[in-house]
Amino acid sequence: MDALRPGRTLRWVLLGGFGGLLALASVAGFEALRALENMHAEEQQARTAYLARSQALLEFRQGLDAWGSRVQEYFLTWSPDTPSDAVDGIQGVVVQIRTALNGWPQAGDPEERQLVEALRSALQEQEQAVNDGLAEGRTKDTARMNRYLHDEVLPRHDRVVQSEEKIAVWDHRHFSGLDAQLVEQFAAVRTRLSRLLVVILGSGFLLAMASIVYILGQDREARQRYAELVESRTQLSDLSARLLEAQEEERRSISRELHDEVGQSLGALLVDVGRLAADIAPEDSVARERLKRVKELAEGSVNSVRNIALLLRPSMLDDLGLVAALEWLAREVSRRGEMEVEVEASGVSASLPEDYKTCIYRVVQEALNNAQKHSGGHNARVRVEQANGQIAIRIHDDGRGFEATRTRGMGLLGMEERVTRLKGTLRVESAPGAGTTVEARLPEVS
Amino acid sequence: MIQATVLLADDHKLMRRGLRLILEQHPEFTVVGEADDGRQAVALAETLNPDIVVMDVAMPNLNGIEAAQQITGRHPKTAVVMLSMHSDESYVLRALKAGARGYLLKDSAEADLTQALQAVREGKSFFSPAVSRVLLEDYGRKLRRAGAEDSWDLLTARERETLQLVAEGKSSKDIANLLNLSVYTVETHRSNLMQKLQLKGIPELILYAVRKGLIA
Predict the structure, then answer these.
(1) What is this structure's pTM?
(2) For B134, which residue in chain A has the nearest alpha carbon?
(3) Domain count across chain A
């Protein structure tokens, strides 16, 4: 459980780290786009306004020039017989000027509004003066008209021109100002973006580094664990081999001890008891009876000790060799149960190494044990054949069999372990109703 | 009464002492030596040339069966009586193949020892009754389970007689004299019965006889 917890935390950290990074990048991107769009729109608007104002100023100036020269001409060339419709042309130009002024974009800036207002009032004043002059012209003479032009009309005209020039200057300045403002805005956006970029790159780099370090660490750890696993598996198999050996050794020594020490002492005891019986007078039936019981008890003990010793490790294996031990085992199994066991041996060397003898004996023992317990068969055959550089052991019973591919008990595993240790192979063939065959093949020792 | 010299070979001093004490009560037997392993038994048999060797099956440094084989190989006249804790056929048959004439179980050594020694001294075989019983049980069970007939029933009366006498250690000539037959006829009986009983050699024949209770 503890091993799993860091994994879950790590998943959230990674998700949060990379998710945050992505979110940050997207936000930065969107913001930059929006800022650029805004700037673009503002610039467009400013340019349009500037163009409109320039156009209006141009038309205004043209109109004003035209109007001024017409007014001047009218006043300078005035005579009583000047046709009255000459005034109409002047009025028409005034309308044109007014239209140009009305084409001025909606003023947002207070200074601009003030300037435009000033222009309008200057224009109105001049118009008033011109109109008054025109009205007077019908009664006055040429000299008076001239004076009126110089004293009243021209100064007012100059003021209009001045006012118009002020607007032109303001317009130009305003536009330049807007431009600077845009540059400033752009710089701000760029700074902001750069900062974000640095943050994103920085944290991305950190995150990537951390991930790389972590993954490499994990990888190293995994390799190490794998190596440890392989190591421990080897150790385990060594250990189990040594355990088997130790167990066999232990059994052998206990068996020997029982047989040699306890068994022999009991044997000697029986001899003594027999001699004692000969010393007792034939008429002393009580003593004879007691001695008989002692003898029976000792005989029972000898039997038990012998049987236990044989179960642990048959002395035949050491005294008489493998084949004799297998024959004894076969008879023992036959005596104990309903199954008759035959042993057939051919070419089995009398000088088989100890571990081979033990391995073969234990495999046969286990197989017969299984056959007797589970197969329900009446006959079993054990074949041991030493030929062509290997020893083949085959135990077959005529019992009910089983699903060899499915069932694999501890007994089979134990057999496999022993056989594998000697670099041999173990095969179990069985099918329901077809009996069971256990076959082991061991490479012969040179 | 025939006198006999005896060599005791057992790696357990207690056992040897017990056997010696039994034999001391029978003046016809003289214990001439004791060995506590197989190698020593072979060496002492060589120097003392005893009539009988009583030998434990399981001994260190050359077990009893191999020692018996060496002794009977060199001194065919020396009778070997095996002493064992096991009544199993594996031991009995191998003891017989090693040339042993008697097979005694340690549990009953006290009761059977002198009887066994007397038998082998006279050239007969001896097996502890318990051994005969176990062999007979195994044989009977096997026949019963296989549903086979006892091949004993296939033998003629003469063959049965011959079988018993061969098992008792008699030569063909002895048997011919005893039964008033020619040696050739005895040989024929002998080979016929061996074939009928599917026996390979004298040890198996003796084992068969023990199983059938013909000798004890």
Answers:
(1) 0.62
(2) A335
(3) 2
